[in-house]
Amino acid sequence: MIYPLLLLAVVATQDTSAGKQVYTKWCAGCHGVDGKGDGEGARHMIPPPRDFTGNALYQIRSTPSGQLPTDADLLRSIDEGLPGTAMPAWKTRLSDRQRRDVLAYIKTFSPYFADTTQRPQPVVFGSAPGGGSVADALRVGRQFYDSIGCRKCHGDLGRGDGPSAPTLKDDAGHPIFAADLHENWRFNGGGTAEDIYHRLRTGLDGTPMPSFSDLIEQKFLTDEQLWRVAQYVRSLSPKEPPAVRDVIHAPLVTKALPHAPDDSAWTSVDGYWFPLVGQVIRKERWFAPAVTGVWVKAVHTADSIALRVVWDDRSQSPDTAWLAHVGRVLNTLDSDDSTREQPAPWPDQLAVQFPVAIPSGMERPYFLMGSPGAPVYQWRWSSSSRTAAVAGLARGIDRFDPQAGSGPGVRVVYDHGQWRLTFTRALASADTASQLPFRTGRAIPVAFFAWDGSNGEHGTRMAISTWYFLALDEPVPARVFISPVLAMVLTLGLGMLVVWRAQQKTSYRRQQ
Amino acid sequence: MNGRIFSVVGGMFLLTVCSKGDRSAVQAAPPRTEVSAAGGTITGKVKFTGAAPKNPAIDMSEEAACKAKYPTTPTEENVVAGAANALANVFVYVKSGVPAGQTFPAPATSVVLDQNGCRYHPHVFGIMVGQGLEILNSDPVLHNIKAIAKANRPFNVSQPSAGMKTTRTFAAPEVMVNLECNVHGWMHAYLGVRPDPFFAVTGPDGSFSIKGLPPGTYTIEAWHEKFGTQTATVTIAATESKTAHFTFAAH
Fold this sequence. Notes:
The complex is a heterodimer. Helices cover 27% and strands 16% of the residues of chain A. Chain A is α+β, with helices and mostly antiparallel strands. In chain A, a hairpin with a 3-residue loop joins strand 4 and strand 5. In chain A, helix 2 packs across helix 4, helix 5 packs across helix 9 and helix 7 packs across helix 9. Chain B has one domain: Sandwich (Immunoglobulin-like), CATH 2.60.40.
């Protein structure tokens, strides 16, 4: 009897006013004053901010499906943030004390945390099993990836393009994507094999992602086999998150220009990754872009250039299977329009942008599709006219003047949640005033824009990059290789001559 | 035709489940309140006015194993209508009137929820607080079972193969807990969790029967997934049998 009373006293006297101050200042803007996930910024986010009230559903936990998170779980999400979402890491922004205070305050929003019958028990996670070859581990992982049905949502190759992907929504009815398993740096619970294993065990409460712990208890698979699934999923992403390098180096190739995106010539060419973000500068703004980045490779011959752009996209738009998803996206986000837009089967699009002429200084046209006075030269491709691309001048985000008959060559492949596209063009141009002539040895500004039609993107609702550079490497002249060798031989010869002369003199003196 | 057979079978299944629940409650030993088989009974029929909305067809082409279980295209079960506008799948329960101090033991037998042909059987059902819900997968495909609840903790577990079973319980009364499968977006079931055995689900003829009620005045609520809720007040003295009919407006 004493015990619960004591506990009650502790709970009652726990001071949450310090936490409230931190919360009001740093958290309420998105999560709302009352913790309902309805702050000022909430209607510009997918996924939306967490609603701390009600039954206190949290995705990232160490506890079984449906249980409350532990304090350590909550603190981890505060400290590290949730990658792939708008939630930043607070570890470096708030003090230890402030983070603990705000944690205590967040827990006051739901009655479940004060309910002493709720005792979250963390799952006892083992550590990754050793033994066997990496190839064997991944083979077993792949086998169970198929047998436990991951592909239903995440797709055959893991790009979040499974047959159920267009129908997914969270408990509140908001649209939700099955994770693209090739982008582990965007996993909200962390991207290590261990993190993935934990998510498989606990599930992500409030989302379609279930817990797979029951399968171990029911001997459908062993704990080790579930670890192999996690290791397989981890293997789909690069070893390190891609780093942004500003300059795309396009080597000179002596063989034929690779026109097809899957030409084997591309395998030996260095790839560059560029992040894309929502276009939130001009109306109508777009806060929930589906294309998060593009992988770019380029090569050139003496007279032509080939530029390959690869990006993950869960749908080959237009696809009516995704219309309901588009409806959910439009319902979740605040719109700049006076009337809410109706879902339509929009196509996927990509634009590559250059200046009209290579600038001599650092001055470049406005990155967001130029301006009336300083247009930019663009290549535009749309999945509705798949095998044709248009070239033209953009004079601002809402004005594009196509140049008839001057589009670059284009070849495209859609494969398991990924577009792979190659643009080809002659380096020289017939109309140097409005079509960029490519030149070697110069830093050519380049930018990228992408639209996922099945995510409601069209017009100004798109994903954008800033300016980067494309450099067409010059052929290395023969003298670069010969001069150092010549210099070395000459130095060696002179040195030997000096030594020989010195030896001659010494022997002459001795003879005397 | 097949849909009708399904609802008939489903209805019979429901009745079996409910009567089982009642029986075990009856057999339960004191000291907790014994539900007298000789108590009062509330029976009634649920109907609707207007035209029943058409249930959407389900495209099961992704799941050949489920699709093969139907001779014709299966539909969702949002509104299951019987003859003369009878409304099936209505959860009818005693919302208030049972004395607060009375507690009822949970039946030892579990309620079975079967995933068969990528649909839930039953589609609407009741369960008592603490009673087991046995979730069975009769399909050779992956189902996840997500419970969306407010008064109860939710859960979301997976069953990737035929024959898998998992049992869950609910700690608090809640009308209704939503069950859904995210792999198959059309799969929905609704579960009423009650602290007493005084609930029923209407069969294909729209009828229901709640037995064993002690004398008292009760608020009865009828819940339908598309048409909402309606209530009625019924007073029972001794072992009499009373009726409560409900009519929903289709929309």
